[in-house]
Amino acid sequence: MEIGQVCIKTKGREAGRKVIVLSTPKNGRVLIDGKQVKRRECNMLHLFPTNEKIKIAKEAPHEAVIKALKN
């Protein structure tokens, strides 16, 4: 997984929602954020990567993530 990778959560109460990866993997976890998902660390096994990739800064603010997902 890379920064800017668009994924879909597969586990938990936010399953089925789109998120963007905001940090590189460490200990099997990545920082994610999305329109209907709070910013948090998430297990990589709980994400389904899509073919989409968005150019975004590492650990970008929530407003930048929402704007990137709209486009």
Describe this structure in words.
The chain has 71 residues and is mainly beta. The protein has a single domain, classed as Roll (SH3 type barrels). The protein contains one helix and five strands; from the N terminus they run E-E-E-E-E-H. The chain has a five-stranded antiparallel β-sheet. The model has no long low-confidence stretch (mean pLDDT 91).
Supply database-style keywords:
single chain, 71 residues, mainly beta, SH3 type barrels, 13% helix, 35% strand, globular
Major beta sheet, specifics? 5 strands, antiparallel
Give Rg in angstroms.
11 Å
Shape: globular
Strand content: 35-45%
CATH class group:
Mainly Beta
The largest sheet has its strands arranged as 4-3-2-1-5
In which range does the helix fraction lie? 10-25%
What is the name of the CATH architecture?
A: Roll
> Helices and strands: which structural class?
mainly beta
Order of H and E elements: EEEEEH
Low-confidence stretches: none
How are the secondary structure elements laid out?
Blueprint: E1 5-9, E2 18-21, E3 29-33, E4 40-43, E5 47-53, H1 62-70
Antiparallel strand pairs: 1-2, 1-5, 2-3, 3-4
Task: Describe the structure in brief.
With 71 residues, the protein is mainly beta. The protein has one helix at residues 62-70; strands at residues 5-9, 18-21, 29-33, 40-43, 47-53.
